[in-house]
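WP5 quarterly update. Target: Beta-lactamase. Source organism: Croceitalea dokdonensis DOKDO 023. Length: 162 aa.
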Amino acid sequence: MVVALMGFCLLVSGQSSQEELYQTLKKKDSLLFDAAFNTCGVNILHTLFTEDFEFYHDKVGLTQGKEAFVGSIAKNCSGRNKELPQPAKRILVAGSLEVYPLFNDGKLYGAVQHGVHHFEFLNQNQQYEKGDIAKFTHVWVLQDGTWKIKRELSYDHHLQEQ
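Structure tokens (predicted):
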């Protein structure tokens, strides 16, 4: 009976920490895409990636290094007319986000986050229309107590059905 109760407590605490990890990385995901698409928060982006970050994209190729990746977003943002609505929106597909913890000898050191998102773009009439839908996978690592993305994959891009 005591062993069963201890097992139940471990199971419940494991679920709690799994849910906490899920919620933490879901918030980080929102922060990432808000900074990249909505606010052009370059300073925020610098806090979200490791120095040796790698971004693998099935249409635009490989970007190596945090500075190269954040620099490309900063360049796109610098040319944006702030008087107009944001030119693109990223929308996480509800229910698609999954998070899997990574352990080394029982110690949490990272996580894999996977999901599906779609994009909308402003057309000539300044109205949003559907763009690509794609899958993404982030490899997060704990670095000095802070979650950072080490690897990002964006793949299976294809047009959404209208």
